[in-house]
């Protein structure tokens, strides 16, 4: 970015060759060098006067180098500078690692489908596309901590292994040491005497344990002692889904505020999203410009309509106040517009049913034409811990819907009344005893508190414009896939 300060100076760079080709009757070698720090690359021009020039001629894509040369203005179109290596006394080309099998190198110069890249997840960070996503993922993680730390939130590390099901969904990965080793008989699993059930008293934790689906319940304990807190870590769901929006392992950002209400939750969530988008727009425009061109290229290759401008959509969300609608208002709008022939939905909608992605996007893209916060959802489609409204039909839940994406944030005010919480636990047929510690928060100095959860990969999809969630996490985990 600050290339002017290096003009006409000798510098040393290191990286990998995206391309490496002899030119001018093999009197020059052009190396397109990248070190993975930006979506761009540096053109290196090696002159035949260099001592190891013949070795450079033989080099191929993926060869790693350390090169010393002089930065000069480039005559080539589309690049400001290049590195000339033509002084045998002060310049140097050191070949660090060669591509020993260029014929079978999986990332040849030709393009690859994103599906193919997932099969070589150990090499796909070398591509411009995955490299760009990795840098934006890093930036969004940094922006997340920056936002909450600057507002006095305490970062709490919640457990990955848990005995409770936060959502009451039951789709959890079990953690146990009772199963026999590979190819050993299942008869070795300890059973309760005279019963055909597993004896978990002999398990590592002496009780059924699982990988967590959320850190929310655990971070609430700290919220009810230290006020504003957040957790940011991996979560897991054993849902056998192969859609482009689901993973078995994903990361969640979950802040929690004490002495706060639904309006406070609105403001925190909207402020967080805006901050993240503004941070990327201000600091990573080169990445966004590359990704926008990549999406256009991909659409043209697939003979599809070019997608809406990624940068324009991010600026819209970052600069537009979020409109608020109740769930009931949102459903009524969708039903009335369908009745009037303005839209035809594939999925039937009625009050009491969770909105599908097409309904969420319709509200954000066609009705509001911007971000929208939908709140006060029917209690029967939400989790047990959400605070009941006075109508006893709805809870103080909220979802943030974004154009081109749909839902990105879900949150609520937490039920702080023990009697009402117990009633919801019973209604959802959950084991009350396993939540004894969560119920204690309502026994000993209960306070109004609220928070939200944001799937980090969904945020990355929103910022990068990537359509498949498997491309925004380094090693995607989904049914049948746990390699690397």
What's the helix count? 12
Average pLDDT level: 93
Uncertain regions: pLDDT < 50 for 5+ in a row? none
**C-alpha geometry:** globular
Task: Report the biggest beta sheet as strand number plus sense, adding barrel if it closes.
Answer: 8 strands, mixed
Task: Summarize the helices and strands and which ones pair or pack.
Blueprint: E1 10-23, E2 28-34, E3 42-47, H1 53-58, E4 64-73, E5 81-85, E6 92-97, H2 114-119, H3 128-149, E7 154-155, E8 161-162, E9 174-175, E10 209-211, H4 216-226, E11 229-236, E12 249-258, H5 262-283, H6 285-301, H7 310-319, E13 323-326, H8 327-339, H9 357-367, E14 372-378, E15 394-402, E16 406-413, H10 418-427, H11 436-443, E17 449-455, H12 456-464
Parallel strand pairs: 3-5, 7-11, 13-14
Antiparallel strand pairs: 1-2, 1-4, 2-3, 4-5, 4-6, 8-10, 9-10, 11-12, 12-17, 14-15, 15-16, 16-17
Helix pairs in contact: 3-5, 3-6, 3-12, 5-7, 8-9
Explain what the structure shows.
The longest helix has 22 residues, at 128-149. The strands form 3 sheets. Strands 7-11-12-17-16-15-14-13 form an 8-stranded mixed beta sheet, sandwiched between helices. The protein has a 5-stranded mixed beta barrel with strand order 1-2-3-5-4. A 3-stranded antiparallel beta sheet has the order 8-10-9, with no helix packed on it. The chain is an alpha+beta fold and 484 residues long. A hairpin with a 7-residue loop joins β4 (64-73) and β5. The mean pLDDT is 93. It has 12 helices and 17 strands. The protein is globular and about 85 Å long. α3 crosses α12 (456-464).
């Amino acid at each position: 970015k600050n290339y002017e300060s290096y003009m006409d100076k000798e510098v040393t760079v290191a990286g990998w060759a995206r391309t490496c080709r002899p030119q001018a009757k093999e009197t020059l070698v052009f190396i397109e060098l990248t070190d993975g720090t930006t979506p761009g690359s540096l053109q290196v021009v090696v002159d035949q006067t260099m001592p190891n020039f013949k070795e450079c001629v033989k080099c191929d894509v993926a060869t790693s180098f350390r090169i010393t040369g002089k930065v000069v203005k480039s005559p080539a179109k589309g690049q400001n500078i290049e590195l000339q290596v033509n002084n045998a006394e002060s310049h140097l080309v050191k070949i660090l690692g060669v591509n020993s099998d260029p014929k079978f190198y999986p990332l040849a110069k030709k393009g690859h489908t994103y599906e193919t890249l997932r099969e070589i997840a150990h090499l796909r960070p070398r591509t411009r596309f995955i490299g760009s996503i990795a840098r934006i993922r890093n930036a969004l993680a940094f922006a997340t901590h920056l936002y909450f730390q600057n507002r006095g939130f305490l970062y709490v590390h919640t457990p990955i292994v848990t005995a409770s099901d936060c959502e009451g969904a039951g789709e959890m990965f079990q953690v146990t040491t009772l199963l026999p080793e590979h190819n050993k008989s299942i008869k070795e699993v300890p059973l309760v005497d005279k019963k055909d059930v597993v004896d978990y008293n002999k398990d590592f934790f002496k009780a059924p344990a699982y990988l967590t689906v959320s850190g929310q319940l655990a971070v609430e304990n700290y919220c009810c002692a230290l006020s504003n807190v957040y957790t940011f870590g991996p979560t897991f769901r054993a849902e056998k889904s192969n859609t482009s929006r689901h993973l078995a392992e994903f990361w969640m950002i979950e802040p929690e505020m004490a002495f706060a209400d639904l309006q406070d939750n609105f403001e925190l969530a909207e402020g967080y999203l805006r901050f993240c988008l503004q941070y990327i727009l201000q600091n990573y425009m080169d990445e966004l410009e590359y990704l926008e061109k990549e999406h256009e290229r991909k659409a043209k290759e697939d003979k599809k309509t070019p997608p809406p401008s990624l940068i324009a959509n991010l600026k819209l969300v970052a600069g537009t106040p979020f409109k608020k609608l109740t769930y009931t208002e949102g459903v009524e709008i969708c039903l009335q517009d369908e009745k009037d022939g303005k839209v035809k939905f594939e999925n039937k909608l009625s009050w009491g049913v969770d909105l599908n992605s097409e309904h969420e996007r319709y509200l954000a893209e066609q009705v509001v034409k911007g971000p929208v916060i939908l709140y006060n959802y029917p209690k029967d489609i939400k989790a047990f811990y959400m605070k009941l409204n006075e109508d006893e039909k709805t809870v103080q839940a909220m979802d943030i819907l974004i154009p081109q994406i749909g839902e990105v944030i879900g949150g609520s005010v937490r039920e702080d009344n023990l009697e009402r919480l117990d009633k919801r636990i019973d209604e959802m047929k959950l084991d009350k005893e396993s939540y004894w510690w969560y119920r204690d928060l309502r026994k000993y100095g209960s306070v109004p508190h609220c928070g939200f959860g944001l799937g980090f990969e969904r945020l990355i999809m929103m910022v990068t414009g990537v359509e498949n969630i498997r491309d925004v996490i380094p090693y995607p985990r989904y049914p049948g896939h746990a390699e690397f």
